[in-house]
Each structure stands twice: as structure tokens, then as C-alpha cells.
Design brief:
This protein has about 130 residues and is an alpha+beta fold. The chain is about 20% helix and about 30% strand. Strand 4 (about 75-80), helix 2 and strand 5 (about 105-110) form a beta-alpha-beta unit. The longest helix has 19 residues, at about 50-70.
């Protein structure tokens, strides 16, 4: 079995203790837990619309990736969870600004409810 290394940074919201890790490094990959639009310092959801929330989710992912020794250009798979598929186009306007020239594989689904009743949550897998 491959060694699992926990990734933890204060530059992203703290995970719930004993429930999950911000990320795990294993076998040359980093698996990053879903990021909600929460500010790492205040631990509160940032104000704004789906676009502001998408930026914050990706900012949190980027901080975790950096702490793991990876970065946005090494992301190979992204899962986006929206509470309302009507936000798809606006989320994509922001999303497309990230990830480097070669965009990662992606799944985007609408779900009934997300943690803290946010409108978007994003998780990713990257190499390191």
C-alpha cells in the first residue's frame, strides 16, 4: 500500500478535525478535498455571487496545492458541485481563467444541498 501523507496549510480553511484532510499525497498524486468559498482567516463564507465564490474556492485549492508541492498547472481532474445549474455559465466564466493552458478533465453536477448551504464546491486531483 502506498504511503499517505497529509497536507495541511493555514492558507486554506481548516478541515473538520477527525473527519477529513485538506489533501492527501499518495503515489505521485495529491487528492484535494472539496473547497467551499470560505476565507481561511475568518472561517466565514465570502460575500458575493457565484463568480466571487468560484474564485474563492479555486484560491483555497491553489493554497492547498502549493502546500503539497504541486500547483494549478498540474491538476488532472476537477469535480465541480453546484447547488443550481443555472449558475453553470457564470461559474465557467471564472473557472476558465485558471488551470493553465491545458485544462484538466472535469465533471460538473448539480446537487440538492452543499455544506453550509453554499452555491459551489470544487475538488481536484493533481500530480506533484
Amino acid at each position: 500500500m502506498a504511503e499517505k501523507i497529509v497536507v495541511l496549510t493555514e492558507k486554506a480553511p481548516k478541515p473538520l478535525a477527525g473527519i477529513y484532510s485538506q489533501a492527501i499525497k499518495a503515489n505521485g498524486f495529491v487528492f484535494v478535498s472539496g473547497a467551499v468559498p470560505m476565507d481561511a482567516q475568518t472561517m466565514k463564507i465570502v460575500d458575493g455571487d457565484i463568480q466571487a465564490h468560484t474564485h474563492q474556492c479555486i484560491k483555497n485549492l491553489a493554497a492547498i496545492l502549493q502546500a503539497s508541492g504541486s500547483d494549478m498547472n498540474k491538476v488532472v481532474k476537477v469535480n465541480v458541485f453546484l447547488s443550481n445549474m443555472d449558475d453553470f455559465a457564470a461559474m465557467n466564466d471564472v473557472y476558465s481563467q485558471y488551470w493553465g493552458e491545458v485544462k484538466p478533465c472535469r465533471t460538473c453536477v448539480a446537487v440538492k444541498t452543499l455544506p453550509l448551504n453554499v452555491d459551489v464546491e470544487i475538488e481536484c486531483t493533481a500530480t506533484y
